[in-house]
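Hi there,

I know you've been waiting on this one. I reran it after we fixed the sequence typo, so this is the corrected version. Both the input and the resulting structure follow.
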Amino acid sequence: MMKLKPCQLTFSPPFCPNPGCVHHRFSSPGFAKKNGITKTIKAPQINQRFLCRACGVQFSQNTFDFDFRKKLIHLSKNVLNFAMNGMSHSSIARELKVSKGSVNLRLKNLAHQSLLFEKEKNVDKISENIAYDGFETFTFSQYSPCYINTAVGMTSHFIYHNTFSPLNRKGRMTDLQKLRQLDLLKKHGAYPKDSIYQESRYIFNEINAKVDKRIQLFSDEHQSYRRAFNQTINKISHETISSRARRNARNPLFAINHLHLLYRHFLCSQKRETIAFQKHEGAMLEKVQLMKIYRNFFQPKFTKKNRYDEFAHLWSPAMYLKIVDRVLEFRDVFGMRRLRTHFKFDERENDFLDRHYPYSRQKMAN
């Protein structure tokens, strides 16, 4: 006869999974009672069930697990580590002996859960100077270039914000490429010309709302950044750095330049001349979101010791901001399944969770 494990015997449900229940967001001790057990094919094979006293909804301990309704548990950890260390989705699927669709689905779920974790560990105040710039890449084809607008703390290297800006193709093109460009413009229309300005203004307003003392924001000389800053009611000052300035540790934009190097090094889709480029804006932003959490919480600021910062090889960027007290592991972030109904989101965050991108030229695979 199978018995419950000791951790199952002491488990107490944190909330009711029913969004309409009074115990969904603010639960009280004893709101649910045990309601028998069920046997399952996958681990843990035997599952404790509960009944909410308020709404009568039944659920199990497995409801709160990140691998809820997954056939292969503990697969997500390997998928995340492989994806954040330069492997393509196809390579991950071959290594783990699963389908590529399973890898895509796990990465989507991880990205969405990481946003909920980020909302839970929200940064209330920003007291360090900010380095701001865009990472230029493309999705699906080079007829759809884009910017990943990013704000990074200059001291902690904590990534505060990422947003997406579609761009129209620019530069020299052959006659055949010009015809292809015209066909796409006739079929889909042009991307918004002020997308970098709009997204920069959004990020500047978000930063400005959390500033508790006057700080500086450093960027390059992009005209959209300057225009967006001038349209913002600021508690911050803006200083531009020439793109021709040497990109070493003394450059005020070092934190953002270093992050872009990590994108090129660790993300397979961002390597030069790769065939593993992102096929959709949604996949692009999900990978960037995962890199954001991985960089902020899972890794120290630098791999090696630094003469100017004795904790650089020991502390994660989040530790500098005192959000956490140690470098986190997979279980700390993805150990419990968080529900979307527990948090409030703005329009961009809802679009991210819904995988809705109004300017996309290709269909998003589920």
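Quick highlight: The beta strands are 32-39, 46-52, 58-60, 130-138, 145-153, 159-166, 215-219, 236-240.

Best,
R. S.
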